[in-house]
Specification:
By secondary structure, the protein is an alpha+beta fold. Helices cover 17% and strands 26% of the residues. The chain has 6 helices and 28 strands. The longest helix is centred in the last third of the chain and has 29 residues.
Length: 545
């Protein structure tokens, strides 16, 4: 996640069940975040164990798919509301409905009369009923564009409709409601959020390995399962280390002379894949602040961008030569890379910056998508190791080079394993600490850095429908019922046994009561009782019992 955090300490292999606060100790953001991660991991693991890989509650199973094709200009899908679980992650397709507004004349619209847009009564100008379900083109996190052929539904039948689920961070730059205005505009935001992103997408049937073109539900689910497992596999690995730079002796003594990490402050480095593909096409970018330095955009005029703020200090501001992404909510959700742009000029009084080129069409032009600039910290011309050539940039990002250590800055180096396949958005986090003069990265017994798969993005998939033709879909969803059920009625044998046991208990209590009464009446009474009891016939005694 792109958030201003110190590090991520959650490690499932340690099997911690909770974080315990201790008196008099410093409480860190990593502690609170790990406690949340532990609880979320336990809840989702339990849900996945009980539900399975995917499924929805009976009676409220979401994501029912209907295909709308035929004579329409663009094929479409309707997405039914309800809930669904994918790998234990709750996904909700319910479409929020607008509230009821109060007009200037004091009416709330519930007086039995229709009102037009100006508040007047009348059926002709009444606002249309809002849709109850999402569609393929207006789904909240999909951001499908009809002008892009790759976003349209497949023209060939059959095809598979599936659910893609992942999580991303959201800060006040994207959701201003997260900011507490009482703190003042000069103060930074407080906590960020993690958002479950769901997207209903389509996959051509030819891309599934179906035997003999079988359309059987189980066969389609199995084929999609194989496709999803391959798509979710990490294709690249990275290692990190800190090495004392060649010219460290020439630096001022701001850090320990033998420190391998030479930075003056603790940092959380983020190395993120920008362009995906194999090593010859892949690029990456890096940030010493976990990519959390962002600047909300107030306006765009060609290459000039007006910002809400230029940063709170010289560490979190913009400078000429910085590389930035022009980002908005749609760009973040689609996980598609765009060329990075270079800051060419600053207009401090006007809170404006001039970029090396205009942002891509369709990005940042809609204020409701909350556009902003995200700063990255790599620079063109930085050296590649001892005597190495300057870093090569492609679309503003650094070219991936496998099989060699690549310096970032201040002694921090990264290593990409050979024959990797890179996915845009995949990232690794590298904490660097001044106290130890090194980075925190797992090593083997010989102190050699270990290769690690990306920390994210973790994507989850579930099949929804196998579309055969117009209004003919084979439903691939699964559902589950509640575990609770009414207590079953007892059998006749159980009821008879219960009645016999009750009668025996009552008889025993009656006998004990008579014995107690005889003892209270004295010796004569006891004798009389005994004599009387002895005079009973066998049948009378059994009747008494």
């Amino acid at each position: 996640m792109h958030a201003d955090i110190s590090r991520i300490t959650f490690r499932p292999d340690r099997h911690y069940s909770a974080v315990v606060a201790q008196q008099g100790r410093v409480q860190l953001d990593a502690d609170a975040n790990e406690n949340t991660a532990i609880q979320l991991y336990q809840a989702r693991t339990t849900a996945a164990d009980l539900i399975g890989q995917h499924g929805g509650p009976a009676g409220a199973t979401g994501f029912k798919i209907n295909f709308l094709g035929g004579n329409r200009e663009l094929d479409d899908l309707t997405i039914g509301g309800g809930r669904y679980y994918v790998d234990g992650i709750l996904v909700d397709a319910t479409r929020p409905q607008p509230g009821t507004a109060v007009d200037d004349d004091g009416h709330d619209g519930h007086d039995g009369h229709d009102r037009d847009e100006d508040g007047g009564q009348g059926g002709a100008g009444a606002a249309p009923e809002p849709p109850r379900t999402w569609t393929y083109w207006d789904q909240p996190d999909g951001f499908r564009d009809p002008e892009r052929p790759g976003d349209r539904l497949p023209t060939g039948l059959p095809f598979l409709v599936y659910l893609k689920v992942w999580e991303r961070s959201v800060t006040a730059a994207e959701d201003p409601a997260l900011r507490e205005v009482a703190l003042g505009s000069a103060l930074p935001d407080t906590a960020a959020r993690t958002k479950v992103v769901w997207q209903v997408l389509a996959l051509e049937g030819s891309k599934l390995d179906l035997e003999d073109g079988s359309g059987d539900k189980d066969a389609v689910r199995a084929a999609f399962g194989r496709w999803a497992a391959e798509a979710a596999l990490p294709g690249s690995r990275l290692a990190a280390r800190s090495e004392r730079p060649e010219h460290a002796d020439e630096d001022p003594c701001l850090v320990k002379p033998d420190a391998r990490y030479r930075g003056p402050e603790n940092q959380l480095y983020r190395v993120e894949v920008h362009d995906g593909g194999t090593a010859k096409d892949a690029t990456f970018k890096w940030s010493r602040e976990n990519g959390s330095v962002v600047f909300p955009v107030d306006g765009l005029d060609g290459t000039w961008v007006e910002l809400a703020s230029l940063g709170s200090d010289d560490k979190l501001d913009l400078n000429v030569g910085d590389w930035v992404e022009f980002v908005d909510t749609a760009y973040s959700s689609r996980l598609e890379p765009l060329p990075l742009l270079r800051v060419e000029e600053l207009d401090l009084p006007g809170r404006r910056v001039r970029l090396s080129a205009e942002p891509e069409p369709g990005v940042g032009r809609r204020p409701e998508l909350h556009p902003f600039l995200r700063r990255w910290d790599h620079r063109e011309g930085s050296r590649r190791g001892k005597g190495g050539a300057p870093a090569r940039l492609k679309h503003g990002a650094v070219k991936v080079e496998e099989g060699r250590w690549l310096p970032l800055e201040d002694g921090v180096e990264v290593y990409f394993a050979a024959e990797g396949t890179y996915k845009a958005g995949d990232y690794w986090l590298i904490p660097a600490r001044t106290t130890t003069g090194s980075v925190e990265w797992p090593v083997n017994e010989a102190r050699k850095p270990l290769l690690r798969a990306p920390l994210g993005v973790q994507v989850h998939y579930a099949p929804l429908a196998w579309v055969l033709s117009e209004q003919s879909e084979s439903d691939l969803r699964q559902s589950f019922g509640p575990l609770a059920a009414p207590v079953p009625a007892a059998s006749e044998e159980a009821l008879a046994a219960e009645a016999a046991a009750l009668a025996e208990t009552e008889a025993r209590e009656a006998a004990e009561a008579r014995a107690g009464a005889g003892a209270v009446g004295g010796p004569d009474a006891g004798a009389g009782a005994s004599a009387g009891a002895g005079a009973w016939t066998e049948g009378e005694a059994e009747e008494q019992l």
